[in-house]
Structures are given as structure tokens and as C-alpha cells.
Amino acid sequence: MNGQTILLISDMRQVYLAEILTKKGMSVRCLDIRNSQTVEEQLLKLKKFLAGAAMLVLPIPVTKVPEQERLNEILNKNLANDTLVLGGCFTEEQRELLDRRGIRYLDFMEDEVVTQENAVATAEGAIAELTNHSPYNIEGAKILVTGYGNCGKAIAKKLRGLGARVTVLARRREVRKQAKEDGFYAVDFAFGPEEAMGAAMLVNTVPAPVVTRVIIKELPRDAYILDIASKPGGTDFACAKEFGIRADLVLGIPGKYAPKESAYILERSMERFAAKQKSIDR
């Protein structure tokens, strides 16, 4: 990958990524947007440096950039046509903008390799959150895992490995079948209220309102709900508060618990994307 790579630093993942890329001999420019008071200054620098950029790496999610309208304006007016853009969870407006301009871009969260590798870091971080906030041990505890995608599957398997009694709630029959083949007790959300009885913890991975009042009201009052789904999550947080149950929406777990490993995951994805674009240009 020749030319300058611009990184918008929103967490330690980008810090380590800059270190990795620099050690590989790449020209890297970092713009730190973690301080809200200096974001405008950093975006002005982005506007200035974009003309010579080969790659632009945005945060995961891209919405971590506080000034979204300003970012979109810069992408529209100052981004060179041949600059490769990478980030996580682009908004629909950003996708339309990049498509309209013919800019080649990669959403890290749509790279299947990234999501599978990130699921491991997410699962380990989720267990750390459960350990920190639940009054119960994981071993022997009844724990509900809602959703059985990459993250749900990884979390359920690691919890089982720690001795938890895991129940998977999933909407689609084929997903429940897969969970059962993996050795889990799996049911439809219609049975959620029944399964909630006696559960010490609940981990939601579904980015839709699935942990609703009918489930929450059946949980013990000392249960802990961890929601790791995309904002705003899939839990009725107001209802949980009403029943005195702690419920946390925790996003960006890989960047919090395994930032360097996550940085290597992103670097490999960048390499694959750049190689693919290079082969297309030949």
C-alpha cells in the first residue's frame, strides 16, 4: 500500500494500528478525535491532508466522529477519487455519498473474517463485563444468550466452557437448530419469559427490541443484563430500571479489552482490501 494512510484515532485500536502500519514502513498520519474540544481542528487537518491520501481509515463505528455532517461534507468535497476508505458501520448517507462519487470503500463489519475474529475478543470482553457486574459466579449460573450470530455463538461457547447453564434465544428456526446441534438448549423468544425465571445473567447480541418487558419482568431483581448489540441495543432499558435490574449497553468491546489484537485484525483486513483493489486495477 503506497501513499499516505490517514487514521482517525477514536480508541486504542487505531493507536496500535498506526504502530503496526508504521513498523511495516507505511507513511501514517494520525488525527486524534478523542478530545471533543479539538475535533474541529482535527477535521480541518483531515480536509487539508486528504488530497495526498492513499487510504483513509475511519473509526468503528464511523459515527464515533462527533461532527458527522462536517465529516460527510469533507468526504464529499475533499476526498480524492482514488483514495480507499475503510471504517465500520457507515451510515446510509455515507454509503450513498461514497457510491455516488465512485469511491471504493470497505466496511470492516461486513468483512466476514473480521467479524469472526472480532467475535472472540467480544466474547472474552463480555465475560469480563459479566464478572465485573454480576453478583454471581458464571460457573453454575443460568445465563440467557439472545441471538446466535458470530458474537452470540462465541459468547455461548465460552460461557459453557466456564460451566454456565446456557440457554439460547433465537428467532429463526434454522438458527435454533444450529445452536442445538452445537449442544445448547435453544428456544424461540416466545419462551423468553419462562426462560428468564431464575436467570442470573442475560447477554443480548440482537440489534432489535427483543429483551422486552415480558422477559425483563420475569428476571430476578439481582440479574444482570449485558447488551452488546449496535446502538440503541435490543433491551428495554427503561423497563429494566423500573424493575431495579441493572442493564448496560456496552459497545466497542474489542477496542476496550483487546485493542492490539483488534488492530492486527484490522490490518489484515486492510491488506486484503488493498490487494483486491490492486488486482482490479491491473
Automatic annotation (TrEMBL):
<dbReference type="InterPro" id="IPR006140">
    <property type="entry name" value="D-isomer_DH_NAD-bd"/>
</dbReference>
<feature type="domain" description="D-isomer specific 2-hydroxyacid dehydrogenase NAD-binding">
    <location>
        <begin position="130"/>
        <end position="216"/>
    </location>
</feature>
<dbReference type="InterPro" id="IPR031629">
    <property type="entry name" value="DpaA_N"/>
</dbReference>
<dbReference type="InterPro" id="IPR036291">
    <property type="entry name" value="NAD(P)-bd_dom_sf"/>
</dbReference>
<dbReference type="GO" id="GO:0051287">
    <property type="term" value="F:NAD binding"/>
</dbReference>
<protein>
    <submittedName>
        <fullName>Dipicolinate synthase</fullName>
    </submittedName>
</protein>
<feature type="domain" description="Dipicolinate synthase subunit A N-terminal">
    <location>
        <begin position="11"/>
        <end position="109"/>
    </location>
</feature>
<dbReference type="Pfam" id="PF16924">
    <property type="entry name" value="DpaA_N"/>
</dbReference>
<dbReference type="Pfam" id="PF02826">
    <property type="entry name" value="2-Hacid_dh_C"/>
</dbReference>
